[in-house]
Amino acid sequence: MLISGSGSNLQAILDARANDPDFPAQPVLVVSDRPGAGGLLRATAAGISAEVVDWSDSPDRESFTAAICDLLDAHKVELVVLAGFMRILSQEAVRRFPNAIVNIHPALLPAFPGARAVEEALAYGVKTTGVTVHFVDEHVDNGPIIAQEPVTVMAADTVETLHRRIQTIEHRLYPKCVAAAATGRLRVQGRSVIWDER
Amino acid sequence: MLISGSGSNLQAILDARANDPDFPAQPVLVVSDRPGAGGLLRATAAGISAEVVDWSDSPDRESFTAAICDLLDAHKVELVVLAGFMRILSQEAVRRFPNAIVNIHPALLPAFPGARAVEEALAYGVKTTGVTVHFVDEHVDNGPIIAQEPVTVMAADTVETLHRRIQTIEHRLYPKCVAAAATGRLRVQGRSVIWDER
């Protein structure tokens, strides 16, 4: 799992695994691009390797991406889960982990891509926004969509209150999608993601 | 009401009025840009004036828009409801009916604007799309959003099945929004539409 911050989605996945002995994905490694990310503590508390690949130590995006991919390979990672990871990886990551990198985004893509999705949705005046889980492809916030759930915007919403309701959905939806991806239930056909019945 | 086709949203509003003696909007005029539009028959069947302003008779968008606005003024129309109207009016319409033109769009704007919203949403592979009702401003599918409702995309959906489920939502949502606009319950503040409590 790749993180940049407190790692609340990381925690949701750790909790899903702790609460369900049959949860099919085994987290093996958490990597942060920042030394102080709170999610690193969550990882070590759960007995998972935690590593830092410091963005500011990398001469460019290519070497940053290569260092992360090497680390993922060394830990035999099969599914790369972005959980509040605020760096954009180079195309090498998609080449080395094709249809095996998932991301979660706090809006209903293709609406409001980018790092300020909740603010932008509120500023636009939408009445419905939501959560998107998708495979990562070579473009930002663009890959095949695994799941989406709507969130109703309330008249009194601020960025904070809306973001909190969006995160509640994220913490339920992401573990479900990670489990499905880990068990090979998700088939990508063009831009469609088909959930195979079990 | 302005239409181009069969006018199923027009019918939904006529039905809402027929079923509720307190429905606060009185349809007075239906205008089509095409002589053969089925919605014209629905209008006359309901005792409402039906007129054609033929797009192909107009030398340009400006004169087409002016002809329609003159007709709306002659009938003392206070709220202009676009119901499957496939022509883009010139800016004169927004100047003459500021925050008094409403439109319904079969997607969650700002995602999938334009005339092929359902096809494009399906081709993109979204799992959630929906319906948007909005005030018309000087840009296409852009004005302040009055209401949105999500619609879940099913694995087996075709454009037809998805469009049918979207229309079911439209036929419930549009009369509600038209009633709110007609009673002055909707306040536009910047890009936000606030629903005043009654």
Short account of what is shown:
The structure is a homodimer of 198-residue chains. Chain A is α/β, with parallel strands linked by helices.
Tell me about this structure.
2 copies of one chain form a homodimer. In chain A, 41% of the residues are buried. The mean pLDDT of chain A is 96. The radius of gyration of chain A is 16 Å and the shape is globular. In chain A, the strands form 3 sheets. The first copy, chain A, has a 4-stranded mixed sheet with strand order 4-5-6-7. In chain A, strands 1-2-3 form a 3-stranded parallel sheet, covered by helices on one side. By secondary structure, chain A is an alpha/beta fold. Chain A is built from 6 helices and 9 strands; from the N terminus they run E-H-E-H-E-H-E-H-E-H-E-E-H-E-E. The A-B interface holds A 108-112, 123-128, 130, 144-150, 155, 190-195 and B 108-112, 123-128, 130, 144-150, 155, 190-195.
Which features characterize this protein?
4-stranded mixed β-sheet, 3-stranded parallel β-sheet, 6 helices, Rossmann fold, homodimer, alpha/beta, globular, 2 domains, 36% helix
In spatial order, strands of the major sheet of chain A run 4-5-6-7
CATH architecture of the largest domain in chain A: 3-Layer(aba) Sandwich
Name the pair of protein chains with the most residues at their interface, and give those residue counts.
A-B, 26 and 26 residues
What's the Cα radius of gyration of chain A? 16 Å
Which oligomeric state applies? homodimer
Shape estimate of chain A? globular
Number of helices of chain A: 6
Overall pLDDT score of chain A: 96
Total count of strands of chain A: 9
Reading the helices and strands of chain A in chain order gives EHEHEHEHEHEEHEE
Q: The CATH topology of the largest domain in chain A, please?
A: Rossmann fold
The CATH homologous superfamily name of the largest domain in chain A equals Formyl transferase, N-terminal domain
**Low-confidence regions of chain A:** none
Helix content of chain A: 25-40%
Structural class of chain A: alpha/beta
What is the C-level CATH assignment of the largest domain in chain A?
Alpha Beta
Number of domains of chain A: 2
Fraction of residues in β-strands of chain A: 15-25%
Question: Ends of chain A: how far apart?
Answer: 26 Å
Q: Largest sheet of chain A, if any?
A: 4 strands, mixed
